[in-house]
Amino acid sequence: MLFSDDFIKKVEDEPILGVVKACEMAFSAISEVMTDEQSWNQDEHEILWEAASFINAVLEQEGFTVPVEFPEPTGDIITNCKNTHEYISSVQSHFKEQSILLKVQSYTSRYKASLKSSFAYEFSQGDLERIQVLINELRSKISEQESLEQEHKQRLLKRLEKLQSELHKRVSDLDRFWGLVGDAGVVLGKLGKDAKPIVDRTREIAEIIWKTQARSEELPSGTQNPMLEHDDKS
């Protein structure tokens, strides 16, 4: 098996970075079993099909579009290898720039937050893990939402990817999280009641963010954000 369960879990959390890494792993694996640069062998065929199938599954799961179609299998190893190799190369090129930007942003965010001398918002471990779960659920709900335009889906999924790549126990600002709340408002305006699964999860994230922000700003315990709606009638 080319991809371990741990790697698959990481791809679920950071799909763009994960897809690019999967492409790199496939090409690295091919180089280890290559016997003749002028032809393809059975081992290369297995690696390429496994990698291409995995990558395609991730793209479909996340609702990502790429400028190349998943190849149809044939009975010819050489044709299959050529087509899957081209597919993986095209996917890698398509996401390479985004993956570089995400990595740089992740490093910047992580080290900014790690500098104890600078102010940072700090999540509890439980809240951090809950936000990760909610972001993954949001990604699935957005991908499944057929009423959203594909372009709008892509923007939302990219925002979630960027948000997740910068999510650490300590963060220097919460702007991206509040931006997500604005996005949910737009979705609500477009979809109405159909947006409820997305809005509910975004609202829960907003409540965690507000709790973290209020604690960091030393507001009294239990202070509610007057800009957020609450279900209590008191």
Overview in brief:
The chain has 234 residues and is mostly helical. It is built from eight helices and two strands; from the N terminus they run ααααβααβαα. The termini are far apart.
Report on this structure.
- The protein is an all-alpha fold and 234 residues long.
- The protein has two domains: 5-98, no CATH class; 115-216, no CATH class.
- The protein is built from eight helices and two strands, in the order ααααβααβαα.
- It has helices at 5-13, 15-33, 42-62, 77-114, 125-144, 150-165, 175-191, 196-216, and strands at residues 121-122, 170-171.
- The protein has a two-stranded antiparallel sheet.
- Helix 2 packs across helix 4 and helix 5 packs antiparallel against helix 6.
- The chain is elongated.
- The protein starts with a helix and ends in an 18-residue tail after the last helix.
- The model has no long low-confidence stretch (mean pLDDT 84).
